[in-house]
Design a protein that fits this description.
Layout lengths: L11 E8 L2 E7 L10 H8 L9 E6 L6 E7 L9 H13 L6 E6 L2 E7 L5 E4 L7 E4 L2 E5 L3 E6 L8 H9 L10 E8 L2 E8 L4 E3 L3 H13 L9 E5 L2 E9 L3 E8 L2 E8 L1
């Protein structure tokens, strides 16, 4: 496979952040200097062997109604749907750019979000409302939590072939015509052990925010988890927590977890 070599880069000032191991290239695009980047160039920047490397790329842009607008791209270069771990990283990045102090309101492709920087360094992010889960079969449920997700319950998630089976389900157009993210879950001691195959990355990631929200909702909906507040999820990249309320829909959904700046640099 030929690796695309970008030709129009003049200089890119980038920042690298991660949320529970889900890593992102962050660009300050408030002056629109990076708006001309193509999907091939974004994919190149996310390549772990020939460029910076990341699960996705996020641009912080101006917003008429909030502190900023979060624009998210998958590592394949395509503009994506909402990303929960990326959202927390965007919040920390915007805070470091001095766009707000302790709390923020921002917008993404799925609408308005609010977030708070907590005293322990965690970030609490309000997600979009969701409809109730829909059964595919007795072990698989689908739900959209800002991005489409399939939640699959397995007996031994640590030894499960996430990449092979996840890729097969990701492209099952009978489940989701546009493709889906796939979460494999195991309930242990009232916690959720989770591994996720992400579309757009086309591989397993160390954590998935919207996937953790989806898995928490489905687990509670089925009675596998007893509480709907502070549901703990163990990902390969760290621990996340999800809270929500449920009636004829799911609302007041909050995703809490870490975000960290790793490094910054320039491509010239």
């Amino acid at each position: 496979m030929q690796i695309f070599q970008p030709m129009i880069f003049k200089q890119i000032n980038f920042f690298k952040y991660h949320g529970a191991g889900n890593d992102f290239i962050m660009l300050d695009n408030r002056s629109q200097q990076y708006s001309a980047l193509t999907s091939k160039e974004i994919s190149f920047l996310c390549n772990r062997h020939f460029a910076i490397g990341a699960d996705g790329l996020i641009m912080i842009e101006n917003s008429d109604h909030g502190d900023f607008y979060m624009r998210y791209f998958n590592s394949d270069g395509a503009e994506g749907t909402m990303c929960g771990n990326g959202g927390r990283c965007a919040v920390l990045f915007a805070h470091n750019l001095k766009l707000f102090d302790k709390s923020t309101t921002f917008f993404a492709v799925d609408g308005e979000h609010k977030a708070d920087l907590l005293s322990d360094g965690q970030i609490r992010l309000k997600m979009s409302d969701s409809s109730l889960p829909e059964a595919v079969n007795e072990k698989m449920y689908k739900i959209n939590t800002g991005s489409p997700h399939l939640v699959v319950f397995v007996e031994n998630v640590e030894n499960y072939n996430v990449k092979k089976i996840g890729r097969k389900l990701r492209y099952d157009t009978q489940i989701y015509p546009e493709g889906t993210n796939v979460n494999f879950c195991q309930i242990v001691d009232n916690k959720i052990k989770i591994r996720t195959y992400e579309r757009g990355v086309e591989d397993e990631t160390l954590a998935c925010g919207t996937g953790s929200v989806a898995s928490s909702i489905v687990s509670y909906f089925l009675g596998l988890i007893k509480q709907n507040k502070n549901i703990l999820l163990e990902t390969k990249g760290g621990q996340l927590a999800v809270s929500f309320d449920m009636s004829d829909k799911v609302y007041d959904i909050f995703l809490t977890g870490p975000a960290k700046k790793v490094f910054e640099g320039k491509i010239v």
